[in-house]
Write a structure and sequence with these properties.
The structure is a single chain. With 99 residues, the protein is mainly beta. The chain starts with 7 loop residues before the first strand and ends in a 12-residue tail after the last helix. It is globular, with a radius of gyration of 15 Å. Helix content is 12%, strand content 45%.
């Protein structure tokens, strides 16, 4: 499994849960991740919710590689929503300026 460090990844876990997170590094058979969120259906469509409500956000979070069924870089529009959900910063949309 080749994971690009520092990128936002989407993981489909063997449990069926879909997880979006930034990968900080790999250690043995684990990924060290930051701000994991789960994809959850809501009244207005799919939303992002914290994967762990009671964890200290300042501690290192790890994900066992053997619990991952599918992995891919996160789509740009979903990545923007992830950044907004985890930092509070809205990513501006790209616009083409014609002159």
């Amino acid at each position: 499994m080749t994971i690009t460090i520092g990128e936002v990844w989407t993981f489909k876990l063997t449990s069926g849960e879909e997880l979006i997170t930034k990968v900080l590094k790999t250690v043995d058979d684990e990924l060290v991740i930051h701000d994991p969120v789960s994809v959850a259906p809501g009244p207005q469509g799919v939303g992002l919710v914290p994967s762990m409500f009671t964890a200290d956000p300042k501690t290192e979070t790890r994900l066992k590689i053997n619990s991952i069924a599918i992995s891919a870089l996160t789509d740009a529009s979903v990545k923007a929503k992830y950044i907004e959900a985890t930092t509070g910063l809205a990513v501006p949309t790209k616009k083409l300026i014609l002159g």
